[in-house]
Structures are given as C-alpha cells and as structure tokens.
C-alpha cells in the first residue's frame, strides 16, 4: 500500500479506537490480536515484542505489533501491571459470513471487554490468595462513602467514609483500582500513588444517587434495597458508580455480585498506612508477602481461607463478641487435634469456588469451573459431616452453610467426567451415559475412525503399497498418501479408476476415493454434532449453577471460615501460642511475649532462641506509657513491634505468641518506627517522621495503642529532645492512651517522676573488655548510656575512628558533668573539634625473625644450610 487511502479494515479499527482512546486496543485478526499506531509503539516497548509496519496513513507507515490469542493472558497481565488499560475487540462473525457481503467486506468486530486493574477474573492474572479490589469513593453534601468489590469472588461492601478516614481505609483494602467522579476534587490521588493503585475518573452521571438506587434494584431484581440494609445517599452513589463501571468494562455482562454488606463505623481497629507499612502486616518493607506477618501466620489450606485471613489481619475486629467467638473456635479445634487434622486434610481438596462461580457468571468459565463447583460442594458435604458433632457457635454456623446442595452435586456428578478439559470447545467433558443422543453421535464419530483404519489396511492390500497411509488436515480433509516412488503405480490402470489424484508434494503424492469422501462427511458431521451437544450441556449446567449461586456462595464462605479457624489452631499448636484475654478494660499485660516474624526467622536460620519479654501497661483510669531506653541493636524496635502485633493478632481472632496476654480492647493502632524519606513529594526523613507523628497525636483516642521509636532523631539534638519531650507529654495528657516510647534521649527518663502514667524501662546489655553484649531482656529502669561507640565497633568502623569517638565522647560527658555551658566551651575553646589530620595506624615494627628471613637468599642455601636455618629460627621463636 503506497497511498494514504484508508482501507475498510483500518477504517473499522480507527472507529473502534476512537471509543477507547485511553486504552490499548487488542484488535482480533484471525489467531492474533493486532495493535496499530501509538498503541503498537507503546505495547512493543512494554511487552518487548517486535514492532513492524502495515500500510500507510497520512503518508507515514503504520506501526504494528501483535500477540497470539492463545498467549494473550500473559501479555494482558504485563500491560496491566505497567499501568495500561486494554480494550479487547473480537470478531463477532465468521469470516465466511463477511465474504458473502462482498470480497471487500470487513469482518464485524466490537469490543467485548475493557480490561483494567480492578476488573480481572482470570486465574493467570490474579493472585489466588489475595483479593483484587475495585473501589469507588463518593461524596454527597460532605457525606462520604467507600464501596468496594472483588468481581472475581462477587463480594460487595460499603461503608460511610469521611475524607479523614479515606487514607487508612484504602490502606486496609489495598485496591488495584479506585473510581472517582470527574466532577469533584478528591484526596484519592496521593493515597493511590502510595498504594500503587490506578485512579480512574468516571462520569458524574455514574454517581447520581437516585439513578444508582434504580440500577442496584435492577441488578438484584428487587423493588427496594431495604432488605439489604439502610444506605445513605453517598453509599448508594458509590455502589452505583461501581455497578455502572462494571457494566461499561464488561460490556453488559455484569459479574455475579452478591447483595451488599454494610460495614459499620468503628467495627474494625483503625490502622493507618504508615503503621501497616512499619509493622509489615500483609507485605514486607521490601515488597511481597515474604517476611510479613501474613506470610508468617498463614497456614490456610484454601484460596478462600487465605483471602479471609488477609481480611482479618487487615481489619482486626473491635466487637468483643466477634473476637470471643473466633477465639472459641480456635480453642475448640486446638483441643481436638484429630478432628483438626482431618479437617485440614479435607480442606486441602477444596477448589476456589468463588472465582469459578464468577467466571461462569461472566461467561468466561469452562468445564473445569463446573468441576470446581462439583468438587467444592462435595468436599463441603464431607467437611460438614466431620464437624457435625462439634459444640461451637462459629463452627456450627459455618457447617450449616455447607449442606443443602445435593441436587446440583448430583447433576454435576452425573454429567461431568472426573477430569474435564479447560475449554468447552475441546469437548469430552460430558460423561458417557448422561445423554443417549450424545453417546450415539460419539459412537459414530469414534467408529468412523476405526473404519478409516480398516479402509487403510484394505487399500494397502489392494494396491500392494504397504506404506500407504490415510491422513487428515484442515485443507484436504481425509486423503490417501503414498511416497513418490509408488505414485506411478497408483495413477496407472486399473488403480487410477478408483484412486483420484489430489495433490503432489516434494516427497509424497495424495489421492482420494469416493468411499473415503463419503465417510469423511459422516465423520465430520458426527464430530461437530457431538461438540454442539456438549456445548449445549455446558450452557445448561452453567445456568443451573448460577441459579444456585447464593447457596454456593454461602458454602464457600463457610469453608473459608473453617479454614481460618483450623489454620489458627494449627499455628497455636505448632508454635506454642496461647489464648489472649480480650475485654473492655484498658489493660495491656503480656508475659513472655515474642515477635512472630523474627522468631520464625531465627528458627529458619537455626539461630539462638528468641528472648521473650514482658510488657505491663498497668495504670488504671490513666494513660500507661513505657519510656524505653537502651542501645541500638539491643532489640527496642523489635519489642515495640511485637507488642503491637500481639494486640493485632488477638483482635483478629488468633492465639498470640506469648505465655499470657490480657489486652483491653484496642481501637486504633499507631506505629512510628524506622526512617524513610519521600523525596517525590519533597519530604525529608525528618519531615516524614513529623508528619506521621502529627497524625498519631491528632487522631489517637484513649483506647489507642501507640508505638514510637526515636522521635526527633532527624534534627539537631536540642530540637529533637524538645520534640520528643513534648510528644510524650501530649500522649500522656491529651491522648491518654497506652504507648511504648523508645528513645536515646536519657534526659527524658526524668519524666517518669513527673507524669504518673509514665514508667521507665530498658533493654539489658553487658560490657566485657570494651565490647557490648546484647541480652535482649527488657526490664524496668533506665539505661545509663547508649553504647553507641561499642555498636559502631561491632559494625566494623575503622579502629582510628572508634578511638577518636571515645575521646570525643569522654570530653562531651565531662563537659556535661562540669556545668551547663561546658559543652559549648568545648566547641569554642578546646582543640577537641578542630579539624585534625586523619589518624593512620603506625606501621608495625619488624621482628627479629622477619629481619633474619629478609637477609636470606633461598637460591644460595645448600640443603644442610637450609636445615640449620630452620633450627635457628625455631630456637629464636622459643626464646
């Protein structure tokens, strides 16, 4: 193509692309998805595939690249992870139909799906053990709401959410995509950047609350939403935006969304993004699950259970009845090890029914999804029988949801083979005996193959060509093939009257016969008919499953509940964890507490056992704060974190790594630990520290649990001490919460004498011959020094630096002892801080032995002289 004319195909492409200008368009052409123009350039770079050209447009070559349809899912995942959206345009008719309209007619195409980070359903694009949330935030007359769904499981939830709570709630959910109105200013963008979530602006009309209510009623086919709960205008607006967006991206094939669950304000422990990051609850600081609390405690056997566990750890409950019920179920299974082991073994054979159900609802499922429902419901019945005699409220309730699906199980058992193929178009997934018509058709198809084999033997005998084969391809159909050496015989009388020449290749010659052509027609018709019958059965089975979606969903939820309880019990049994006492008091008493992640790491390394420690915040009707001092590397940060994690685990319904634990309900968990900067936003390390500290002081209530480490260390000594001092006073006087406050400012230990709720504690160390030995034991009292120089020596600083540091430290400490202005005098008047030349270690003096050896020339030594030299050196060494 050398001119600028637009071909009909390219005109169709440009028309579709104009409707999806913000997405890469996968344009189906046969067995490939092709991309053109800027899409091709961007995709070739993102996917590292070849960029070619196809024709011209406006005088310029059209860039083009493509990916095979069969490998499209992997490329989709790469594009989504790199921030792209993808519109998939499929061929909506057979190319043969298009040709009937004329030789230049274009196959009709249309977008069937818009793939975005929050709308993934395929197993290959998702993490099986994590949710993939799509969120929508709405604000109506200063009333905010947050709605979220995972379309791969059908879960839909909503809650009131003011702007001030938006960041911590999004940090809890870790959504992949967040919807906001294009007509309102929103605080979402900066939060989404921190979370790595995509932000999508949708039309203001999608947020119309009146229209949203109508859409939601139509979705669940009800006249009113009252049966699901009472929702404010902002909540309706957020849910309506979600449904409208799903209708847009799924092109009218809405996922199987369950009725909404409304989460009450204050139902879960509030944990902000900084605290989640510092405590490494669901992901480590380095990224990923490895090294996180979630990875350490996850012993779930099912994908649904793993997702529920993550939700529990991300949002520990504040409802004492809920917490007690969960702990009871763990206690019950801990006491019955035989039942627990049987239950966990049965759970390991439970497939992911939630995601199979969602794929079937979106018409993206296959026979294996039908089998997943069958196998999951069958295992549910078995598990229900295992826990039938258990006397526990939560376990009993979960078991009730596992039964009542006998009809659908029977249907799937009778209709499906044991191990069906992935795709319906592959056929062979309907059991023999289920449909007599299908059996008859299959018999014809299969016997036809046997007849072909018999016909081949007959023709070989008739022609005397033993190498004669009957083969098949998509172009010629069935044909007879012989080598070129036998071709002349086949084309000579009398064989040429029966064997009709079809094709000659380099080494073979191909023939057919009238009986072979007739048999081919019968076989092909039987095969196609059998496949059509199986597809019809697939659609009927899919419909039957979707009609039972509610009970199936309840069964999946019950299995997840049992899985988490059994996993927590197995964890408690294996690690020696104990049941915490959680009540409405303000107590925080831990005996023999341990950090679960650090302890697990030590076990894997075969290192020394973790040193357990107590924590007793005992003040009544008053704040309770431990001021913790001690050297770096002694374990202060570990101690702070382990107590925060113990509180989190307890309210998640888990036993805890401690000999004993009594925890008064924690409403908020705050952590300011570690040093990091945020240069992208112009924030230094100290600025990040102050922002996070400000968030704690402005939000913590009297039921909060706060851990603070080294407040004020990022600035000058007096500035830092002043900030740390004032922060501790504010926690005590204004927030009146429970807190662990670690510091190197020993001057602050005097606050224990002035503030009744403050108590000093320190991490024990020993000094031996100038070195420091860490005991990792926390005891009441204050540290006398920080041992910073000794720690620097352990880190490997050069010896001259260590010696110089000791001199400086001694001078500073003597200055403190001599009076208020002595330190300043040191700086001004003494040579202590004047620039000194680098101190180099003196070269070691040569020993007498070294001098003697230098005088020896080995080449001049006789054997006897060498032996005498050895005796001489040995005698000198002895002296």
Automatic annotation (TrEMBL):
Residues 704-720 form the DNA mismatch repair proteins mutS family domain. ATP binds at residues 630-637. One of its GO terms (cellular component) is cytosol. Pfam families: MutS_I, MutS_II, MutS_III, MutS_IV, MutS_V. InterPro entries: DNA_mismatch_repair_MutS, DNA_mismatch_repair_MutS-lik_N, DNA_mismatch_repair_MutS/MSH, DNA_mismatch_repair_MutS_C, DNA_mismatch_repair_MutS_clamp, DNA_mismatch_repair_MutS_core, DNA_mismatch_repair_MutS_N, DNA_mismatch_repair_MutS_sf. GO terms for molecular function: ATP binding; ATP-dependent DNA damage sensor activity; damaged DNA binding; mismatched DNA binding. The keyword DNA repair applies. NCBIfam families: mutS1, PRK05399.1. This is DNA mismatch repair protein MutS. It comes from Gemmobacter caeni.
């Amino acid at each position: 193509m050398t001119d600028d004319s637009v071909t009909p195909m390219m005109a169709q492409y440009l028309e579709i692309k104009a409707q999806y200008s913000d997405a890469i368009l996968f344009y189906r052409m046969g067995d490939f998805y092709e991309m053109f123009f800027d899409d091709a350039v961007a995709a070739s770079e993102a996917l590292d595939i070849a960029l070619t050209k196809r024709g011209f447009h406006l005088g310029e070559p059209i860039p083009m690249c493509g990916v095979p349809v069969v490998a499209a899912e992997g490329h989709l995942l790469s594009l989504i992870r790199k921030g792209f959206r993808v519109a998939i345009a499929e061929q909506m008719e057979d190319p043969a139909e298009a040709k009937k309209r004329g030789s230049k007619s274009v196959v009709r195409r249309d977008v069937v799906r818009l793939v975005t980070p929050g709308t993934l359903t395929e197993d290959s694009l998702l993490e099986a053990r994590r949710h993939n949330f799509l969120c929508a935030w709405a604000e109506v007359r200063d009333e905010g709401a947050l709605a979220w769904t995972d379309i791969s499981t059908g879960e839909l939830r909503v809650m009131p959410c003011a702007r001030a709570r938006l960041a911590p709630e999004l940090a809890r959910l870790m959504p992949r995509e967040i919807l906001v109105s294009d007509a309102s200013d929103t605080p979402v963008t900066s939060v989404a950047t921190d979370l790595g979530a995509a932000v999508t602006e949708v039309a203001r009309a999608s947020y119309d609350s009146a229209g949203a209510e109508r859409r939601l009623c139509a979705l669940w086919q009800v006249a009113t939403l009252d049966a699901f709960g009472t929702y404010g205008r902002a909540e309706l607006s957020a849910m309506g935006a979600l449904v409208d967006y799903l209708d847009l991206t799924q092109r009218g094939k809405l996922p199987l969304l369950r009725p909404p669950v409304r989460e009450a304000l204050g139902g879960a422990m509030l944990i902000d993004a900084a605290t989640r990051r510092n405590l490494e609850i669901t992901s480590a600081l380095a990224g990923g699950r490895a090294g996180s609390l979630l990875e350490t405690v996850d012993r779930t056997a099912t994908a649904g259970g793993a997702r529920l566990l993550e939700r529990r750890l991300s949002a520990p409950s504040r409802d004492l009845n809920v917490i007690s019920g969960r702990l009871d179920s763990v206690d019950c299974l801990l006491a019955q090890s035989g039942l627990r082991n049987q239950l966990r073994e049965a759970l390991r054979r439970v497939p992911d029914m939630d995601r199979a159900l969602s794929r079937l609802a979106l018409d993206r499922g296959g026979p294996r999804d039908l089998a997943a429902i069958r196998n999951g419901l069958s295992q549910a019945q078995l598990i229900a029988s295992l826990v039938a005699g258990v006397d526990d409220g939560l376990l009993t309730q979960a078991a009730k949801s596992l039964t009542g699906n006998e009809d659908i199980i029977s249907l799937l058992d009778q209709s499906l083979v044991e191990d069906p193929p992935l795709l319906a178009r592959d056929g062979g997934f309907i059991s023999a005996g289920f449909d007599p018509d299908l059996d008859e058709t299959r018999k014809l198809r299969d016997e036809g193959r046997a007849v072909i084999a018999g016909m081949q033997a007959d023709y070989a005998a008739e022609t005397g060509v033993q190498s004669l084969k009957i083969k098949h391809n998509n172009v010629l159909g069935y044909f007879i093939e012989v080598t070129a050496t036998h071709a002349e015989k086949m084309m000579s009388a009398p064989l040429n009257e029966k064997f009709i020449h079809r094709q000659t290749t380099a080494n073979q010659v191909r023939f057919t016969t009238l009986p072979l052509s007739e048999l081919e027609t019968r076989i092909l018709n039987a095969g196609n008919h059998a496949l059509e019958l199986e597809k019809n059965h697939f659609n009927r089975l899919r419909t039957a499953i979707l009609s039972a979606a509610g009970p199936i969903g309840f069964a999946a939820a019950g299995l997840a509940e049992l899985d988490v309880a059994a996993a927590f019990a197995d964890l408690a049994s294996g690690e020696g964890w104990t049941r915490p006492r959680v009540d409405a008091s303000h107590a925080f008493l831990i005996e023999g507490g341990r950090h679960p992640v650090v302890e697990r790491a030590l076990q894997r390394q075969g290192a020394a056992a973790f040193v357990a420690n107590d924590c007793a915040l005992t003040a009544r009707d008053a704040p309770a704060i431990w001021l913790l001092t001690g050297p770096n590397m002694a374990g202060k940060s570990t101690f702070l974190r382990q107590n925060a994690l113990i509180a989190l685990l307890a309210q998640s319904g888990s036993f805890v790594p401690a000999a004993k634990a009594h925890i008064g309900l924690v409403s908020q968990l705050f952590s300011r630990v570690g040093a990091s900067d945020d240069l992208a936003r112009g924030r230094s390390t100290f600025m990040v520290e102050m922002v996070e500290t400000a968030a704690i002081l402005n939000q913590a209530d009297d039921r909060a649990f706060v851990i603070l480490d080294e407040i004020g260390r990022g600035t000058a000594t007096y500035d830092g001490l002043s900030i740390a001092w004032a922060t501790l006073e504010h926690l005590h006087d204004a927030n009146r919460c429970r807190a662990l406050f670690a510091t190197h400012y020993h001057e602050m230990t005097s606050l224990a004498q002035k503030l009744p709720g403050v108590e000093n504690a320190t991490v024990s160390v020993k000094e031996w011959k100038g070195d420091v030995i860490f005991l990792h034991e926390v005891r009441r009292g204050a540290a006398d020094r920080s041992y910073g120089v000794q720690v620097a020596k352990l880190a490997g600083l050069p010896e001259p630096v260590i010696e110089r540091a000791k001199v400086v430290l001694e001078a500073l400490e003597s200055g403190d002892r001599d009076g208020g202005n002595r330190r300043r005098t040191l700086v001004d008047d003494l040579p202590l801080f004047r620039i000194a030349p680098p101190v180099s270690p003196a070269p070691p003096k040569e020993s007498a032995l070294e001098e003697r050896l230098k005088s020896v020339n080995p080449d001049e030594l006789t054997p006897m002289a060498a032996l005498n030299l050895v005796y001489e050196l040995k005698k000198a060494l002895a002296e």
